[in-house]
Here is the input.
Amino acid sequence: MLRLYNTLTKRVEEFVPSSRGYVKAYFCGPTPYDYFHLGHARAYVSFDILKRFLMVKGYNVIHVQNITDIDDKIINRSRELGISWRELADIYTKDYLDAMRLLRISIDLHPRVTDHISDIITFIQGLIEKGHAYVAESGSVYFDVSTYHDYGRLSGRGYSEEWRQEEEYLAEKRNPYDFALWKAAKPGEPYWDSPWGRGRPGWHIECSVMSSKYLGNEIDIHGGGQDLIFPHHENERAQSEAYFGKSPWVRYWFHVGYLTISGEKMSKSLGNIVTFKEASSKWGAEVIRLWIASASYRKSLDYKEEALEQARIIYRRMVEAHQLLRSIVREKGIEHSLGEKDIEVWMGLSRTWEGFLTALEDDLDTPRAMASLHELLSIIYSNVIRRDSGSLALKALSVLETMDKILDVLPKPEQRPVLANIDPEDLVKLLVEVRQRLRQKKMYEESDWIREQMMRLGIKLLDEKDKTRWVYTS
Here is the structure.
């Protein structure tokens, strides 16, 4: 049983999707007006871990994530840089997609706002006909918040005359808390034709339209950063439930905590951004995934190089353990009986997976899950590798690789070049054997030189009592 915190109900609930074995998920994607940063990575990796866990549990997850390729921020930034708004959006969309590929995050569908203008117009027209929206004299269209009587439950913030949305449009709105569905075109801005005149979509309407177009009028999980709860998700919820006449429109609202630097939220407006490109060039995308998993998704995660260095150590231990286990399985094969001590180790390996699973079932408690990963690695290094048992190595390999189906950091199998029909691994084994013979003849200077040169090539040698193992370094 999976239990998740639902922002709408403010409690942890058993997760039950609308259709058995099938999860419809929507996560708010980027507005591509600047480079992809670690705050984005934190949100998207957290949701990716949830998605992968659901898939491991047997669910078919359909994941839609939008790209807001027209917005005030895009228009303003394109003017600053002296390029077209479309060119700017394309540049930063590519940066986003490149980062997602490095982070190993796969999305089923990436709808763009500008490819769904006709769908948006149809949706807005429906809200007008149902009495939930009105056309202002300028040709802008606004959602009438007073017609939706459950406003504020998601964010805990109700509407009143004291607060306002989009203050530049106050003069033409019926109520200060109404929000724009369609913005009438201003001179020099991009526009599309509509029944109300030339203009472009407001911020909130796009997600309601694109999520429902591909997932239907009921969504199992809708996610985003905590900064989107108000006003974006509150407004999404209002216009969608008003349009469909259905509540809840989203069964579970999933929100990820802030990424901070020295306790302050990382944001472009504050100028304290660490770009993903900068961070990944230093640490690697896999280390960043492990670092993100070290904190609960609902809590703030502070950017500290010490924490990333710790994640790098864990990553290297995982990679090395994975290679050593595969080596033992290749060399030893599978035993057909185990001694009592081996059985104890076997059961300990099983318990680490049970702990990992139980932690993630409890509101995606990744810190506890990571503790189970640490325990697994400890057993591998202290018992499995030393016992040199093919059966134990295979069991440990199975647990490690199953955990990695969710964490997804281990290197992918690579096609290694064939040189004159010789497997490169055979050449490595040959060098290891040469070095072993040198050591037997007490030619330690030469054997140390071979080890150093192999390390430079990315091959680490591990000397044991009567043999030498080797692993690729990251």
Remarks:
- Residues 424-472 form one domain.
- Residues 305-332 form the longest helix (28 residues).
- The mean pLDDT is 93.
